[in-house]
Amino acid sequence: MVKRNKRFHAEVATSSLSDIMFFLLLFFLIISTLANPNVIRMTLPKSKNNEKTNKQQISLSVTEDKKFYLDKEEVAFDQLEKTLISKMGDAKDQTVVVRIPFNLQVQDLVDILQIGVKNKLKFVIATNNSK
């Protein structure tokens, strides 16, 4: 007589887990590129021609009640220049994306852009596409 080994071996089928993990990774990569966590919601001016930038950028948002935010961090206007320069560091090729509501005065925008001109920084104004 031949004795057979009748031990029960518990197995977990893991062949489909790698597919599921791949799809989850792909999903989260796509979602993370679409969401910009440094944006404060506001109504932007409209423009017919929009360009997108893939460069490293700093977000400067101004609310309707004239509060200034650098990447969601509130900054007083008199400290804006100093804070912006310290955020830029040595990387002068960064772009500052200015998000300002459409109904603010032009002088408010000029005051911000003068900081960029004075320190030779690249400023871009964010707009909505008006198609």
Number of E-state strands: 7
**How many strands, which pairing sense, and closed or not: the largest β-sheet?**
5 strands, mixed
User: Could you say which structural class the secondary elements and strand pairing correspond to?
Assistant: alpha/beta
> Helical region count?
3
Terminal CA distance: 84 Å
Q: What is the chains' assembly state?
A: single chain
What Rg is obtained from the alpha carbons, in whole angstroms?
25 Å
- H and E string: HEEEEHEHEE
User: Which stretches are poorly predicted, pLDDT < 50 over at least 5 residues?
Assistant: none
- Give the strand line-up of the largest sheet: 4-3-2-5-6
Instruction: Bin the helical content.
Output: 25-40%
